[in-house]
Amino acid sequence: MKLNKSKTFPDDKTITAYGNRLGLSNRDVTKILRRLEIAYQVVAAKCEQDPRYQTDALLSNIKQAIKRTGLRDKTARRTR
User: Where are the domains of the chain?
Assistant: First the structure.
């Protein structure tokens, strides 16, 4: 998936601007991002406990991509 012709995960400013273009307020964008972060945390925790996660190449690649993008770091920063 691409946003602004880039495959990298967009930063908050880019996501907010995109949401604004869709007619969402900054507050609504923040709420949506928070819900996505919670969903990510739940899925990541379940995958960490699932033995299939350790042997499935696709899931392992997704995990590595998440680590490279720093999504977990962004989540921690927002929840403070």
Answer: 12-78
